[in-house]
Amino acid sequence: MRSELLVLPSVAAAVIGGTSIFGGRGGYTGTIIGALILTVLTTLLTILQMPEGARRILFGLIVLFVTAAYLRIVEER
Length: 77
Known about the structure:
Layout: H1 4-16, H2 28-47, H3 52-76
Helix pairs in contact: 1-2, 1-3
């Protein structure tokens, strides 16, 4: 597998685990949990025979959604 195919899932796993893409916050435990969640999602999408392009779009949408939710939570504080 080429390394550029792993960049978006890696970022998605970190963001799902609570690591801020803006820096300064996050931890190993959350990132590991995010990676496990993403692994289950990837396995499910493989079983459903979703094309690779659609998976990448889904991972991008996950990153955007979680980042937007994080920003909304931070602004409310």
